[in-house]
Write a structure and sequence with these properties.
By secondary structure, the protein is mostly beta strands. It folds into two domains: 66 residues, SH3 type barrels, CATH 2.30.30.30; 69 residues, OB fold (Dihydrolipoamide Acetyltransferase, E2P) (Beta Barrel). A hairpin with a 2-residue loop joins strand 2 and strand 3. The longest helix is centred in the C-terminal third of the chain and has 12 residues. Helices cover 7% and strands 48% of the residues. The chain contains one helix and eleven strands. The strands form three sheets. Strands 9-8-7-10-11 form a five-stranded antiparallel beta sheet. A four-stranded antiparallel beta sheet has the order 2-3-4-5, with no helix packed on it.
Length: 162
């Protein structure tokens, strides 16, 4: 009988996948897809005609949903591509710490303090609005184990009326 120690199994998560397969020809512009291992929003798609060897090819251009970087890929239309699960949630901004972490409150009243002020224009807008004393809603995008604030807007429901 073989030693049991030869068969060690390690699990890192609950087994829930961060992506699901979808046939390339079923993907649509403004949808999401994994390109070069990154979750992207499809901004351009074109299909080439079927060649003498059979498959029509789909050319996709996508923008990384977290960094905004452009990614491209070409895939036979009958092949499957990975599509990321993308969750979008709004949080009310409560505070910004000295080290740049946001204190956000969800709809259920739960607080979270694990996200930083985003880089670029969104971060600048967030700080400007916060410093001006505005009530701010932060839209957080979550996919493939990453989360980032992708948009901010004034929470007009909470604006003080004078």
């Amino acid at each position: 009988m073989a030693d049991m120690e030869e068969h060690e199994f390690h699990t890192a998560d609950s087994g829930a996948s961060e992506t699901f397969p979808m046939q390339c020809s079923a993907l649509r512009k403004n949808g999401f897809v994994m390109l070069k291992g990154r979750p992207c929003k499809i901004v351009e798609m074109s299909t080439s005609k079927t060649g003498k060897h059979g498959h029509a090819k789909v050319h996709m251009v996508g923008l990384d949903i977290f960094t905004g970087k452009k990614c491209e890929d070409i895939c036979p239309s009958t092949h499957n591509m990975d599509v990321p699960f993308v969750k979008r949630e709004d949080y009310q901004l409560m505070d910004i710490s000295d080290d740049g972490f946001l204190t956000l409150m969800g709809d259920s009243g739960d607080l979270r303090e694990d996200l930083k002020v985003p880089d670029g224009d969104v971060g600048v807008q967030l700080k400007t609005d916060y410093d001006a004393g505005r009530e701010i809603l932060c839209t957080v995008l979550k996919s493939c184990g990453e989360e980032v604030v992708i948009a901010v807007k004034n929470n007009t429901a909470l604006e003080k009326t004078n």
